[in-house]
Design brief:
heterodimer; A: Ubiquitin-like (UB roll); five-stranded mixed β-sheet; two-stranded antiparallel ribbon; 6 helices; 23% helix; 15% strand; B: 154 residues; alpha+beta; Arc Repressor Mutant, subunit A; Glutaredoxin; four-stranded mixed β-sheet; binds iron/sulfur cluster; binds FE2/S2 (inorganic) cluster
Chain lengths: 227, 154
């Protein structure tokens, strides 16, 4: 057992857990993009940052790669964390505004403006496809090539790879491959359509009565916000 | 260029087919062929036991490696900060114009490959142009023609 302080509360964790595992175990929501259950943590997108330590020495670390430490002081939702998180979402949104997963993150974590021009790229370099192909499909057909602004994902020599099993797993996990659903603002760079709907119960009874307590996120009984 | 299996194998064996020698092996192959031929990379992957995509990852990460055949003479124009402000880009343009290739490419006759680099660590003598490892100091647009001539028939 490893004890640490999570948002002011003393909690017990297990050796080998990451800060992300811990936060999720205790029901705290932390956004992630490059992290995926079943794949090795990678720490590439920095969306999952949390603040560790106190006072002027407090710093941001990626929770998906940071292992629990005895006595560590962790805060998951400080001003600094929220600002960093929103900035990362905003930047990724400018890279791939057509990505449903990133649009959803924006709606969920309160990113409602977009200050950077859209680049409409097909990749945000999360590396999920590469790890999926290597670790779950045991194929190693694709990988990063070149570096800096020339960095890209591809097969050797950009031709059909002999190692590829055509399983489609790389596309299945790609956040940039699934096109966003067309909400009321489908043409803009920032969707936020989710923010314009609310569960019908809220209007009818004046409170959320959903037994799943998911505030309309399942999308089955939502209507456009009246106010 | 013909890629001979035993020549590549000899280079790989020189490094005991070790994974940690991957970069050294690629350097030797590049020295032998002046670039990294596709067949050689496939052979390295098999003999050293590194997935081909990872060999490619390393080969494309470093500017020192080239996947395309290179010319007899390699012209490298410095575009580092110091050389940049002293006219590096103009000199590069002049080379591109005279050789008829874009930076990164090789002339049709296979004589010259034009490349750029970001600082060679000798800014005081800039703008610097390196041809086949020989440094040309304080170059200018006017000197480009002479530099090309110097190597044309070598
Ligand atoms: S409307 Fe669709 S794309 Fe837009 S934020 Fe909601 S779920 Fe995401
Ligand atoms: S389709 Fe091919 S490249 Fe994609 S995960 Fe499967 S084996 Fe890998
Ligand atoms: S192709 Fe998709 S899954 Fe792969 S790194 Fe790019 S965004 Fe991520
Ligand atoms: S989810 Fe932790 S860095 Fe991407
Ligand atoms: S900038 Fe050219 S040698 Fe430093």
């Amino acid at each position: 057992m490893i004890a640490l302080k999570l948002n002011g509360l003393e909690v017990q964790t297990e050796k080998g857990w990451t800060l992300l595992d811990t936060a999720r175990f205790f029901g705290l929501e932390i956004p992630t993009l490059c992290h995926m259950d079943g794949l090795t943590p990678w720490g590439g997108c920095r969306l999952c940052v949390v603040e560790i330590g106190e006072g002027p020495r407090a710093k941001l670390v990626s929770s998906c790669t940071y292992p629990v430490e005895e006595g560590l002081v962790v805060h998951t939702d400080t001003k600094r964390v929220i600002a960093a998180r929103r900035m990362m979402i905003e930047l990724m949104l400018s890279t791939a505004p057509m990505s449903k997963e990133i649009q959803d993150l924006a709606s969920r974590f309160g990113v409602t403006r977009q200050r950077f021009p859209p680049r409409n790229e097909e990749c945000v370099y999360c590396g999920r496809c590469i790890r999926m192909c290597d670790e779950q499909m045991d194929a190693r057909a694709i990988g990063f090539q070149y570096r800096g602004y020339k960095k890209k994902i591809g097969t050797p020599f950009d031709i059909r790879s002999e190692e590829c099993r055509l399983c489609g797993a790389c596309m299945y996990v790609c956040p940039a491959c699934a096109a966003r659903c067309g909400g009321p603002n489908a043409d803009t760079d920032i969707c936020n359509a989710c923010l314009q709907v609310e569960p019908t119960c809220l209007e009818k009874y004046g409170e959320l009565t959903c037994w799943m307590y998911d505030a309309g996120r399942c999308g089955t009984c939502v209507q456009e916000k009246k106010s | 260029m013909d890629v001979q299996t035993d020549r590549v194998n000899a280079l790989i064996r020189k490094h005991k087919s070790e994974k940690k020698a991957l970069i050294a092996i690629l350097q030797d192959i590049q020295a032998e062929y002046s670039y990294l031929p596709k067949e050689a990379l496939q052979q390295v992957s098999r003999s050293v036991g590194v997935p081909l995509i990872d060999v490619i990852g390393v080969a494309t990460f470093y500017r020192a490696f080239s996947l395309k055949p290179r010319g007899k003479h390699v012209v490298t124009v410095c575009l580092g900060t110091a050389c940049h402000v002293r006219g590096g880009p103009k000199i590069l343009e002049e080379f591109e114009r005279r050789l008829g290739v874009a930076s990164g490419d090789t002339t049709e006759d296979g004589k010259f490959t034009l490349e750029t680099v970001a600082c060679l660590g000798c800014c005081a003598i800039g703008p610097v142009v390196v041809v086949d490892g020989e440094y040309h100091a304080q170059t200018s647009i006017r000197k480009v023609e002479a530099i090309i001539k110097q190597y044309l028939n070598k």
